[in-house]
Amino acid sequence: MSPRSFLVPPVDTVTYGPGAFDEVSNRIAQIGGVRVMVILSGSLAGGPVEKALHERLGSRVVGVYSRTRQHVPRSSVLEAARIARDNRADCVMSVGGGTPIDCAKAVALALSAEIRQPEDFERHRVRFTYPSTYEVPSIDGDVVPHVAVPTTLSGGEHTGLCGVTNDATRSKDAYTSSKLQPRAVVLDPWVTAGTPGWLWAASGMRAVDHAVEGILSARHMPMTDALGSGALRLLTENLPGSTADPHDQHARTQCLLGTWLSIFGLTNVGVGLSHGIGHQLAAEFDMIHGVTSAIMLPLVMEFTKVQTLPRLRVVAEAMGVDTRELTDSAAADAAISAVRDLVALLGVPNRISAAGGTRDELPKIADHVMGDAAVAACPRRVTRDDVLELLHAAW
């Protein structure tokens, strides 16, 4: 067995729990920020969270952008980057779900790499050829630092990876560098209280997807198995209650922590086919990623069942199933059922048709999926026909 490494994302601090939002001023000072460009969820604009942000940062806020469209189209990044340049921003802060967090990373990239036109993104996107060929452009020079304050459970605050959608082709491209990792993360349940229950639940399924596919990854390792299992325990136990009661600060904090644990699989061993399909489904049909996870994860678990039997037992146990009397196959089926049961309990759509997709686009999506780097971690060899069959099964 060749040597392997476990990578810890280069974040300076993660501050969590009730009252954590009061620390945003200190976190900005910690990264040397003087002129802050805020990328804000549109639903938070003008509300108590934005008001509290201005109270804590005052004149250091030199720009606020709250018009990022879902899945971060290039046009939104360019618009936000222009505002940041015009106001000489020296750091960015994201407050919201995965969309503003990814937009803030992309703005930081655009500022450092002189991305000013849509075609400029082409120089920096990750290129992947199945099964394992990557081209990952480096980022020269410094990148403006980023403080992230999430309001959902997408987990983007814990990675140096972001997805940006090509407005023309509607394919979603990946951009990655340790320099894009937020330097500080603030996890406060109060900030999440205004997140609609359906969005909290769906984003929670995204975190479940991170954890499960990390455990099932072809490159899995004991450390990510353990962290993924811990994530699944926290999420399974706290997602239903925190969805029903957005003011349950304990349950919401536990979900935020579960999301943090879930992300180490993505950053160390990769995720897999559920994510690869989900990226492209979401971009094509303007779905949120949590919905694509609810749709695809159980089907992909079935698709890779033979290759992942022992690890599916780990998933089942982490989700509260007593597997002591079960065969490996029965434990695997129990894991898949546990995911389906959680989707049903949370009320997240579990079919492409129910989530607003159209069947005619599925072949094009299958083409895009085969160029998605997430597919490389799938423990079973994948063909375009396999992807298309899974898409039809998900219809």
From TrEMBL:
Q: Where do the Alcohol dehydrogenase iron-type/glycerol dehydrogenase GldA domain residues begin and end? A: 14-189
Q: NAD: is it a keyword of this entry?
A: yes
Domain of life, per the record? Bacteria
**Span of domain Fe-containing alcohol dehydrogenase-like C-terminal:** 201-395
Keywords for this protein: NAD, Oxidoreductase
Family designation: Belongs to the iron-containing alcohol dehydrogenase family.
Task: Name the PANTHER family on file.
Answer: ALCOHOL DEHYDROGENASE, ALCOHOL DEHYDROGENASE 4
Q: What is this protein called?
A: Iron-containing alcohol dehydrogenase
Which species is this UniProt entry from? Pseudonocardia eucalypti
